[in-house]
Each structure stands twice: as structure tokens, then as C-alpha cells.
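Journal club prep — side note

Before the paper discussion, L.F. wants everyone to see what a predicted structure for a comparable chain looks like in C-alpha cell form. Sequence:
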Amino acid sequence: MAPVSRHHGDGSLWNAPDPPDPDRLFEQHSVEELTAIHRSLRQQMEGKREELRTMVGERYRDLIEAADTINTMKTGARHTIQTIQDLMVKSKAMSHTASLSTDRSAVNPQNVPYLTLAAEIKCLMMCPEKIWTQVDQRDYLQASQLYLFARHTHTGLTMDQGGHFSAQHVANVFPVVGRQWASIAHFRDAILQGAKSTLIRTDSTPEACIGAMLSRALIQGFSASDLFEEFLQLRKADFKQYLQEEHQSETAKGLMARSLGLILSTLTVIHQAFRAEEGVTLASQAQSMQKPTLDTFETKLSPVLKYLPPIVSGFKPSLIQPLKPLETDYVQSKLRTWLDEIHELVNPEIKQVMSHISGIGSLISIRRSVYELLLSKDPKCWDQVCRSLLGKELNLWDEFFRSVFRERIEALIASQIAGSVYCVQSTLSGLTDLNSESDLSAFLWSESQVSEIGLLASGPGAKSKDGSVRLTGLELKARGYSPRVLDLCEQFDGMLKRLLQDVKLLIEDQLSKEVEKASPLEMPALFLDKLTNESVKEPFLAQADNEAILLFLEQSVQEHLDGMITHIGEKYLSQDQRGLCVFLARFYQALPEISPNLEKSVLASKTLAPVKEAPFEPIQARKTLKVDPQWGDVKEKLELESCRIFRFWITALMIDLKSALSLALRTNQDPRLLHIFGAWETIEISEQGEESEPVKSTIKVPQAPSIAFICALGEFCHHVYNIAPYSLPTPVQMALSQEPCKVVTSVYTHLVDQERLNQNVALQLLFDLQFMKAAIISTDNKPTQELAEEIIQKLEANHIDPFDLRVFLPYISVNVKKSILKEQGLLSVLIPNDRFTLMASMKSSLPPPSSLSNQENHNLMWTIPPKKEKIPLIPIPKRMKPESQMSSLLSAQDGNMTGHGPRSVSPVLGRRKRDKSPVARAAGSFFEAMSTSWFGSK
């Protein structure tokens, strides 16, 4: 395909403004076209060179002309300067020959009109320079007076003065008059605009503002009320425009300073101008205009000015409307309306700007800057100004910024507390592998480091220098807190600590410079009087909102804490997540102890408020500090939530316990239930035969709880021991003790209500229920006790022969007590507190072991998997003298030998009825052990 060429209207192949790409040209064009393009480019280059030569030539010609003009001006300036110098020399020479103070009467009367006309023109010629000088110095009152004087003089020149000096004649002969007035007339707008700028600027002095007001009153004919209202409107309009243009880039500190400067300057100027009795006021400044304006001219340097007519020389500017005093009600009404309008303008803007402030420290800096700004204005003088203008004192901080400042502080406090709660919730959502929280055995039984033990020696929960509490490994194990619980509590506590530090800085920020504290007894009375009289009044009290802020902090902490508890309870609590339940329960349990800043936050109004010096009290009169009710309510709330979550976990354990126990006690599959039986005890009994001969027989009775029963409870205890049950709250420990009883009774009720059970099975179940009733069921748990008793009665009435029950029951009772003493170490978590006293008395009430029996006691602990070590309780034995031991053994043997009667029970059981009560024997055993072993007596 042939390359496509691009032709233009001028016949050239290339006329693009951009330089052509050689590679693309060779790709798209033929050799002939490239030659034509080359020729076109050379023509364009030649044209550009010609244009450049022409432009350089023209510029060089202009440069030469400018140089010639400068040389001409330089020569003319030198000639003019030389001429002026010659004139000055000649005038000095003439001053020695003629006097300048020639009397007017010596002048030819025919020349007086010409001299008068010349003097007026001379004044008109001098006015622009003087007006410019005053405008440049921002003295607009003097500039307006000169302007009015120039206008008055020009008016006289444009009027018919009689004779040959008609207005038309003056305009024709002296055209300078018209041109000069044209150069003066524009000063009116410049003076008014300058006076307006002075009134708008907040850094203008009251004297300058008063002069600007009078200047506008002279030129525009304003009255006092007009000046007052115009001044307020100018300030308001300027501030509104400032907010519209600069508020996006303005800081809160700058915006507050600008608004305060506006209000302070406005009220001060109004008071000085309209209400003050002393100083430069509007009335006093108006009286200063009674001098002729011509006095500002240097008449001695211009002798012709003496020929001015009296109407010009005696000109005094006057106000069109007199400046009458403003009524008090009128001023107060207008100022209050103006202040309300300014408040409506500045309040939303300050809220918007302060919404970007993210730290309490920045708010402290802003408040301090406002305080210093208000302090620079003497508070006493400011109070006088406010009482004069408003009829009351006006605290600008309280009226304009206090509410916004407090709202922002409360918003920051609430956001930081919400952030702390959010961090806790996000940490919970990110936690994984929480199953380890329900099994702390590895952590509880691991050895602690030596450094941690050394720290523990300094005191449990010792506080560091910054007041935080760091628990050591041993302390964590003693309380059952895992390292994860410690980290989460410390994370929450750290965020609260930073918040409290910021709030403390805010509360303790002393804005006023206080005198060093000293005892009044050490100060002379005269010095105290002087200090009292000359003390500087504070613009506002920085501590006014401290109590409200601290109360808000307390309320916000409690509200967000309640919200956190509700959110966690709705989102995370589940019986399937047992590790999470234990973790959350431990978190609520540990939070009051590991997070001391939580207590400080809840009691912020008491812990962060400045401490007042309490009167001296003797040590005997000091009372023990009690827990604050407010903090007590929070602790109780956390403890209740912890107990509630623990009950979720306990409910899950109860489900497992019921499932395991029901599965192990299924009688429909194995009627003999050999898998739940342990080794029974073989007991030899004797009874009287038909011929009064003793007949001996052996019976077997249960000597331990069933394997299913003890395995299910052991598995339950294993899970409980893994979370350090000794550190659980008392209600949780009671629930752990009594909830299994309900499960066991419900399972056994289902078994008993089925078809008739084998008597051996019934005896084993009876043994389990007797064991549970004597060791596990609390005396306060009346419903479970009654249900267990009801099941026992059903077993005895429906499934066991009454004659056999009468024989077996005493031996079962003894074996129950023995089993309790054996299993109390394993099942100690299930034993309520009110049962330990009875257990202590059980050993003393048991009969001594019989030497005739070759049956060894079977220990059934091997049936339970060795999942965890457990330190059993150490019983306190009753120490007996050898004589008493021998006599007891002999009496027992005698009783066995002499026992007779039909189906007589063991003599030991009969003797047990004559002994003291179990509680009395337990108490006696305890006190005897205390007296003999602990205190060293024999």
C-alpha cells in the first residue's frame, strides 16, 4: 500500500506546529514528498529568521528612543533644579532689602482683589498635598476637615464675586481652579473608605475609630445613632465575610481570638465614643473642631494667605446633625441584639472547627490562649464597660465558648472510652484457640521464674511508680487469670490511663499566676491587705466545669461499660464456646483488680478533683476506709456478669454430665450392669439357729459408688479443676457444687421410674444416692434433698426386699462414710462448705477395722483416667493414748464374740449409737489435735 501523504492548504506537505518525527516521516512519505517537506521547512525557517530580525530592529529602535528620552529628562531636571536654586538665592537676597510683613494698607487697594483671589487659589493648591499626608497617616478626621475646607474654597471661587472676577472669568483666566478641584474631589471616596476600614479593623484604637466616625459624620451628615448602628453593622458584615472566606483554613484558636477581638474592640470603642465621661469621646472630639481649619496651614511661609477673605480664613467645619447622647435602653437593646447575631454566626463555625480537634491537650491550649487574651484586657475595666453598655457584667467565655468547649471535651471523653471498649471487642473477635482458656492446667502447674517470685515478695499486686498494677506469674495462678486475660485488662486499663491523664491535665490546669503559698501567720497584715486589694480578677473560672466534666466521665464510663457487657453477651456467649465463656468470665472477674484506672474513672469526681485539706484528726479518730458505693455497684455488676457467664459454662458441663451418666446407666441393654459395679465388700454375719446354735453367713454390700457415678463426677471435677476453682466467686462455687446433684437426681429418677430393677442394681444406686446426700447436697438445698430422699424411698419400697434392706443398710451407711473420706480429695469441688464439718466427724464415728477379716479395702481410683494431679485435703487425726487404743480394740473384739440374737448387726454399730453425736466428736477431735500436736503438749 502506498504511504498516505498529508497536504495542506498552502501547498506544503508539512505545516504542523509540532516538529515532525523523522522516523514517522520516512515510514509514511515517499522520497519526493520528503523533499517537498524539506523545502517547506527551509522556507519556514527563513521566514522566522526574517521576523526575528525585524522584531530585534524594532525593539532596538524603541530602546534608543527611550535612552534619548531619559537623557532629555535628565537634562531638563538639572536645568529645573538649577533654576530653583537660583530663585532661592535671589529670594534670600531680596529678604534683606524688603520686609515680608508689609502692611496690607501699604498695598495698592486695586491689587487687593487680585491678592485675595491668589490667596484662595494658593489654598486650593496646598490642599491636595495636606489631604494626602493626613490620609497616609490615617488621620481621617483632619483629612475630612481639609477636604471640606477645599470644597468651601472652591465654592467661593466658582461664585460671582463682583467686579471683574465673575465665576466665568475665574474659570477662563485661571483654569487651574477646575483642574485642582478635580484632583481634590476624589478624596471624598478615599476618606470615607479609609474611615470605614478603620472602623472595621479590630486592632484600631478607640481614638482612631472616634476620628473615623466624625469624619463620616462631617462628610455624610450622620447622627450619633446612625454612627452607632453603622459601626455595629460594619463589624458584623466584615466578620460574616471573614467566616465565609477563611473559616475552612482557620484554626479554632484563631477563630476564637478573632471573635473575641471583635467583641472586645467593638464594645470598648462604643463605650469610649458614646458612654465614657472622660478621655477622648465623640463629643470631646467634635469640640476640637471649633478652631479654624486655616490654622493647620503654615501661613508664615506664604504671605499671600493673609489676604484671604474672612469667610475662608475663619472656616470651621460643622456637623449637619448634632451628636446627641444615646439613650441607655436604646444602646442596651441594640448591643444585645448585635451580640446575639454574632453568637449565631460564630457558634456553628466554632463547633465545626473544634470537631477536628482530636486531643484534650489542644483544648487546654485553646482555653489558655483565650484566657490570656481576655486577661490582656483589664477585667475590671471590662466589667465597667459592660455595666455601662449592657447594665450587667458580660463573661465572654461563658456566653460564647464555654458550652462549645465543654461539649467537645465530653465528645472526646466519650469517643476515647468508646475506643477503649471497641478495642476490647475487636480483640475478642480476633482471638483464636480459646479452648486453652478452659484448661489452664499447663499454666497453673508450671514453675514460676525466680524474678517473678522476687516481685511477689514485695507484696501481692504491688503498684509500680505510675500507679499501675502488674501481677506476677504466681499471683495470676493464685487468682486463676490467664496471660490473655491479663493482657486484655492491661490494654483496657492503658487506654483509660491515657484518658485520665488528659482529663487530669485539664482539671489541674491553673490559668492564673498564683502567689506562692505561705502561712498567713508568716505574712504581715499590711502585705495581706495589699495583696487582697491589688489581686487581679480572673476573666473566667477554668474550674467551673470540672465537676460536670468529671461526672460526665463517670456516667460515660458506666454507660459504655454496660454497652460492652450487653454487646459481648449478645454476640459471643454460647454454650458451644466454653473457652470463650471462661475467658470472658475471668475478664470480668479480673477487670476491677487489674484495671485500677477503671475505678479512678468510675470515681473521677473523687479521685481527680483537687483534694481539699482536711482538718487534722488524731489516729484514733480515723475510720477505716470503706468501698465507695458507686464503685461497689460497678464491681457487683461485673461480678454478676462473670457469674452469669460462668453459669453458661456450668450448663454446658451439666449437659455433658447428664449425657455421660445416662449413657453409662442404660439398663435396657445390660440388665446386670456389671460395667457400673465395683468390688463389693464381703461381710460375715452370725445369727441364732433353731437349736440356739450360732449360724454364720456372708453377705456382700456395696463399698464404693458405682463406676459410672464416680467417673461422670470425676470427669466433671477434672474440667472444673482445670480453671482453678479455688479462685471462683462464691455463687459459682455453690453452683458447681449443687448443679451436679440436680443432674444426678434427674437421671436416677428416670431409672427408678422404669420397670423393676435388680436388687443389686438398686442397692448400688441406693449407695450412690446416700453418698451424694451425705457428701454433696448442701443442707440449704432443700428441693434436691427432698428429691433424693424421695428416690431413696422408691428404691427401698419398690426394688429392695425389706428384710435384706434391714440387714444391708447399716453396712452401707458405714461404707458410704468410708467412701466419702476416700473420694473427698477427688470430689472436693462438689462438697459444699457446710459438709466439711460433718466429714471431719465421720472418721471418728467409723468402727475400727476388724482383725478377723481378710478382705482388703479396694481402692477404685484406678478406674478414673489419671488426667490431672490433685492435692487432697490433709485430715486431722484424733491422737489416742496407747491404753485407750488397746481398750477400744478389746471392747470391739469382745463385742464381736458376745454378739447374739437373730440377724444381729455388728456390735460396733450398736456401740455407735451410744457414742456422742458426730459433731461433738469432730469438735473434740479438732481441739485435742490442736492442744496435743500444734502446741506441743502430750
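L.F.'s comment for the group: The mean pLDDT is 76. Keep this in mind when we get to the figures.
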